[in-house]
User: Which sequence fits this backbone?
């Protein structure tokens, strides 16, 4: 089995993963922007959609939303803790019976027949975690799709600035004083991250060339019993578009959620997010700006693509 899949299985099956992931929109502004963008995109394409496959559906952020809009959803994920969290939330929202939960890896979709779902979605990078099988996985997702596919993968142009900015996440903290463990880590490590930082052109050029975040160090950590972050394949916008086209996807549109917000300092983002009117208006503007093809690569983590079969 490829290391990516083994690493993902260990990482995402940690018992607290479901709980932590389900709170991201309470703590991180970039996550709010990204999920809001995806939600707007999804809701604008629901005409004629009855069945949906959500690959790497996590704790149900979108499977539950679509079930509430009357879709029959197959919620597919490699992680049992994520599935358990999603079931708990689906029950609270009264849509447990509208969702079929399946534990599995995107690398093997052979149980699903050609064109078995009206819509296929996969958000917040599950496809990028299947390296070196990411193209095959996109092909399989298009195979089981009848009408519309919408996916978001890790963005190479979005990630490259991280290598010059180890404190990028601090820009997007909604409440620096909350007790979320990752927020605490960002706040407590900020000074040290700046102090120990130096710019490594070679690391930037390597990511630019091969698109890979992680590799031999993660494999060694895994072999030593550790839980490294997934080896992540980042896509260029044109590359993703060409792959989708090759698999027969048409009318492709792309977006980079987070591109607009990247230009705004934390103090102002927090102010906007804490005022419900400004927040709603701001998220509308982000949706429009981030969907412009000229900025789509500069989204924060993810590159979003939508198209029809
Ligand atoms: C960042 S979460 C995104 C969850 C959800 N799509 C969302 O946008 O809120 C990534 C999800 O992908 C799942 N995942 C990672 N690798 C996978 C694989 N190879 N096959 C299926 N699911 C995978 C993880 O368990 C996790 O739930």
Assistant:
């Amino acid at each position: 089995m490829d290391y990516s899949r083994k690493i993902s299985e260990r990482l995402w099956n940690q018992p607290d993963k479901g709980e932590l992931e389900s709170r991201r929109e309470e703590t991180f502004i970039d996550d709010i922007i990204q999920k809001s963008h995806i939600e707007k995109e999804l809701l604008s394409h629901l005409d004629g959609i009855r069945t949906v496959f959500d690959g790497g559906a996590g704790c149900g952020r979108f499977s539950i939303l679509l079930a509430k809009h009357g879709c029959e959803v197959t919620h597919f994920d490699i992680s049992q803790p994520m599935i358990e969290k999603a079931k708990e939330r689906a029950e609270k929202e009264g849509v447990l019976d509208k969702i079929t939960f399946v534990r599995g890896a995107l690398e093997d979709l052979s149980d699903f027949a050609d064109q078995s779902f009206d819509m296929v979605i996969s958000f917040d990078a599950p496809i990028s975690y299947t390296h070196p099988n990411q193209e095959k996985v996109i092909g399989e997702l298009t195979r089981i799709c009848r009408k519309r596919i919408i996916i978001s993968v890790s963005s190479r142009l979005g990630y490259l600035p991280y290598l010059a900015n180890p404190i990028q996440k601090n820009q997007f903290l909604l409440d620096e004083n909350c007790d979320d463990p990752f927020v605490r880590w960002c706040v407590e490590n900020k000074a040290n991250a700046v102090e120990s930082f130096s710019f490594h052109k070679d690391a930037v050029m390597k990511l630019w060339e091969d698109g890979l975040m992680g590799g031999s160090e993660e494999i060694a950590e895994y072999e030593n019993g550790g839980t490294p972050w997934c080896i992540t394949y980042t896509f260029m916008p044109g590359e993703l578009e060409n792959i989708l086209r090759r698999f027969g996807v048409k009318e492709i549109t792309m977006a980079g959620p987070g591109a607009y917000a990247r230009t705004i300092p934390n103090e102002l983002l927090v102010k906007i997010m804490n005022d419900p009117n400004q927040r709603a208006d701001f998220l509308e503007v982000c949706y429009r700006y981030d969907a412009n093809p000229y900025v789509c690569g500069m989204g924060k983590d993810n590159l979003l693509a939508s198209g029809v079969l």
